[in-house]
Amino acid sequence: MVHAIGDWPQKLAWPRDRDRPICIVAEKDLTLEDLLRHIETRHRPGFREFIATRAGQLRLGHPTMATWVRQFADITCLELEAKSRGIDMKQAAAILADELKHGFEGWLQGYVKERERSGHPIELTQNRIDALLSDFQNRAGMRTELDGWLNTLVPPIGIENEKMLLDFYATYATVFGGRVTISHILIQHRDPRTLELLTGEARQDALEKLASVRARLEPDGSNFEEVATLMSEDRRTAHNGGVLKAIKRFDPRLPAAICRAAWNLVDGKFTGPVETPYGLEFIKRLYLKHDYYVVNPNAEFKTTIAATKRRLEQENLVFQLRKKYGVRLLY
What we know:
The chain has a four-stranded antiparallel beta sheet with strand order 4-3-6-5, with helices on both faces. It has a three-stranded antiparallel beta sheet with strand order 2-1-7. The protein is α+β, with helices and mostly antiparallel strands. The chain is built from twelve helices and seven strands. It has helices at 32-42, 47-51, 54-60, 63-84, 89-117, 126-153, 162-171, 173-177, 200-216, 224-231, 256-264, 299-324, and strands spanning 21-25, 28-31, 178-187, 243-247, 270-275, 280-290, 328-329. Among the domains are: 87-153; 174-290, Chitinase A, domain 3, CATH 3.10.50. The two termini are 16 Å apart. The relative contact order is 0.14. The radius of gyration is 22 Å and the shape is globular.
C-alpha cells in the first residue's frame, strides 16, 4: 500500500494506532503493533502492557521511538538477507545472544567503575544483576540485536592475509589518520523534539525550504557557507557557515549518513540532500587533514585494519539493504 505524507496524525497513541504503518520493508507495511511485539518478544516481556500506561504513552513521544523504527527496519532487512543467504537461524540466534551478553558485560563493567568513582559502590547480587540486565535490554536491546545481525552477516576478518590488509590500508589510509572538515545545511523534516517525520503543512514547509536551498546554491558550491548561514536550521553551526570540524570516518558524534557523504566527497564539492535521523542535509567537504601514515603495520595495527575493514563492510551492507528492500520510514 502507498501512503501519502499526512495520512496519519503525528502523535502516536496505544492501542489507538496499533495498525498504523511505521515503515515499509520489501513492499510490506510494518505497523506499530509489529514493532512493539518485536520488542516485547525479544527484549522486554510485557512491553505492550507497559506502553498502555501513562509512562508508556510518554515513551511513544520520546526520540527513542524514531530510533526504534529505524533499527526495526534495518533488523528486518538483515533478517531477510540472512534467510536469502541460507544462514542457519539457530546459529544466528546464538550470535545475537552472544552480542547481548558481551554488550551487557561491557556496560556493567563501566557502570560499576562509575559508581566506584562517584563514591557509591554497588553490591552485585544476582537480583541486582537481573534488574540491570532487564534495564540494559530495554534501552539497548534493539541496538545490540542490530549489531548481532551485522556480525552474523559480516563475520570477523583475520589478520593472516597480510596482503589483503595492506591493500585495504593503502586504499583507505585516510580513514585511519584523517579528519575532514565540512559545512552542512540542515532542513528539518522531522520534529526537533520527538524526531518523528513532519506531516501536513509542516512537511510542506520543510520541502519548500529544501527547494529554496537548492535554488540558492551555486553549482560549484562557492556560496555554500553563505547559504548555510542564511538557511540552515542547525542553529549551533549556522552562524559559522555550517562548519563541523575534524570528523572521523566513524565519528560517534554524527549519523553514519553524514560521515559517509563527507568521506565520499573530494575537497570543495558538495552533495545532498542526504537523509539523516535529524533531517535532510546538504554537505560540502572543505578539506581533509591527514595526521599520520603507518609504513610497516605491526600485529596490533593489523588487527585495527581488520576491524576497520569489517566495520566498513557492515556499514555498506546496511545502506545496500535499505536500497535492496526498498526501506521507507513513515514515522
